[in-house]
Design goal:
Layout lengths: L1 E2 L7 H12 L2 H21 L5 E4 L3 E2 L1 H7 L3 E5 L5 E2 L13 H9 L1 H10 L5 H7 L4 E3 L4 H10 L8 H14 L4 H16 L2 H12 L9
Parallel strand pairs: 1-2, 2-4, 3-5, 4-6
Helix pairs in contact: 1-2, 3-4, 4-5, 8-9
Amino acid sequence: MATTTQPTAGETTKQLVNYRRDGGVAVIEYYFCLHANEMLLRLEHTPKLVIAAINGHCVGGGLEIAMAADIRIARKDAGKIGLPEVNLGVLPGTGGTQRLSRLVGKSKAIELMVTGNTFSFEEAQELGIINDIYERDGFMENMMEYAKQFCPPNKAAKAVGRIKRAVQTGWEIPMESALAVERENQQILFQSEDAKEGLAAYVEKRPAVFKAK
């Protein structure tokens, strides 16, 4: 499970202003975006489920990180969410333009980014940016309980990971190729001990006990 911490208000902006005065901002920002892109792509393609626990404002880079997670859950009334980079004269440059459009659709994503407004977690849930909103009390404890359901012995960790990999890989390729990816992942899973346990438990009408093997 991933949590994000926002920098001190204005800290990143002040750093960029200083870089601009030094004449090095263009190069620094380009490589910063490049490395951030690589890191978040790895987060998306790791065979582990990534859950973003949003426990405060999720604006700009914080939202770009959260959108690379598989599931996003926010704490009620903990803050605002959005991509306001246009107000600084730039764009959401660490994947925001691409991931937001894939979540909410092209037209809505453009509107949200060119207005630069921040909005509530409830609005984000309606748009499909956030999966759920939890009450403030016991937020992290409830998040951990939620995450445990995807781990052994409750779920087959390999199956969870392969589902993620099939979706992530198949999302950007033609249907025929995506179905081939799905078949390959299924073939791998059928050879696992957890698949044998799951099928046996189904036949024997008992709860399966998975071991991530």
